[in-house]
């Protein structure tokens, strides 16, 4: 279950360039499947960008770009590491630049409901994030998934620490990371994974 988010400024700019978003003329391509990580995906996809543009697609939904304990990208750990099973940061940068050159918007699949820790906390769960950027402790994890944060206000994603988005420091860090993905990496849109759990979307 996901949600696509584009800000008002981007919508106005798109409207001025033919109304791609505002007037509903966007055509979104989901450019991956559950096996894509096995096929050097960023480089593989870059070779198809021209054909994607010729086919009329205006936006491409890409898989989660962050380092993850699952090869598909849905068990993120170091959010600022974009070397993943889909390819390197350099390959991702090249792909997004090629998409920009062909007027295709890059959409990142963003997983912020849960995050796998690097070290064990007091309960024996991996719910601390020592040694990596956004180095939260157990207070960033909901109490119902083994942390010291508040009780979850949404559904739980079982088996991994669920992030407590009621914490101001969590919201601050996630928003800064999303801005980095847009302004530094070049993603223009986001699709949020498991939105029925991540209540932070209410404050974006």
Automatic annotation (TrEMBL):
Record GO biological process: carbohydrate metabolic process
The keyword Methyltransferase is assigned to this record: no
Highest taxon listed in the record's lineage: Eukaryota
Location of the Glycosyl hydrolase family 13 catalytic domain: 52-115
Family annotation (InterPro entries): GH, GH13_cat_dom
UniProt keyword list: Germination
UniProt record similarity statement: Belongs to the glycosyl hydrolase 13 family.
The name this protein goes by in its record: 1,4-alpha-D-glucan glucanohydrolase
């Amino acid at each position: 279950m996901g949600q696509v988010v584009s800000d008002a400024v981007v919508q106005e700019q798109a409207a001025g360039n033919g109304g791609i978003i505002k007037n509903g003329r966007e055509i979104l391509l989901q450019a991956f499947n559950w096996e894509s990580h096995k096929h050097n995906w960023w480089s593989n996809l870059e070779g198809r960008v021209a054909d994607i543009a010729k086919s009329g697609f205006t936006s491409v939904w890409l898989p989660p770009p962050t380092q993850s304990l699952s090869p598909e990208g849905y068990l993120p750990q170091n959010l600022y590491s974009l070397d993943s099973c889909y390819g390197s940061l350099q390959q991702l940068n090249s792909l997004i630049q090629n998409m920009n050159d062909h007027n295709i918007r890059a959409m990142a699949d963003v997983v912020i409901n849960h995050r796998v820790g690097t070290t064990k906390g007091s309960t024996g769960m991996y719910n601390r994030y020592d040694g990596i950027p956004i180095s939260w402790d157990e207070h960033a994890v909901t109490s119902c998934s083994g942390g010291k944060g508040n009780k979850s206000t949404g559904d739980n994603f079982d088996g991994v620490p669920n992030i407590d988005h009621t914490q101001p420091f969590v919201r601050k860090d996630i928003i800064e990371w999303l801005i980095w993905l847009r302004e530094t990496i070049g993603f223009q849109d986001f699709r949020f994974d498991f939105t029925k759990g991540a209540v932070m979307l209410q404050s974006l």
